[in-house]
From TrEMBL:
One of its GO terms (molecular function) is hydrolase activity, hydrolyzing O-glycosyl compounds. This is Carbohydrate-binding domain-containing protein. It comes from the Bacteria. Residues 15-160 form the Carbohydrate-binding domain. It comes from Phocaeicola sartorii. Pfam families: CBM9_2 (PF16011).
Amino acid sequence: MKVKKLSGKVQDAQQIPALFDNENIMYHPVDRVNWEAYPYQPHVSFRIAYTNDAILLHYKVTEDSVRARYGEDNGSVWTDSCVEFFSIPAADGIYYNLECNCIGTVLLAAGPERSDREAAPLEITGQVKRWASLGRETFEEKIGECTWEVALLIPYKVFF
């Protein structure tokens, strides 16, 4: 996959979907289920680009139900309807995972392995700008097909 560099500075995550449309940045499917114990597979696609200052992501998800119990960063967003981004930005082998639920709440952690991770301080997670099509308020599970989107503007400085 080739990731396009965009010129200029993006100020707000809400701008990302329209910007990607204007720049003809295509969606890529997420078509693998990594956990045998959890075979459910929602329809997920994403778009990605970068600028001099940040990584830009736009996810689109359609699933059988949706939930957003966690509204504060570094909570258990993986138990909500969520998406995840992995990155190894330097040669030190430290990888970052940024999980984001359907209302834009994030969990950011870093470490050399999956089991030995350090969560980012809230001062760091607060620098990730987000837009969520479902708004930012928590809610219990809603049964029935739902399509939601989330856009993230991830400044390079969050890689602590």
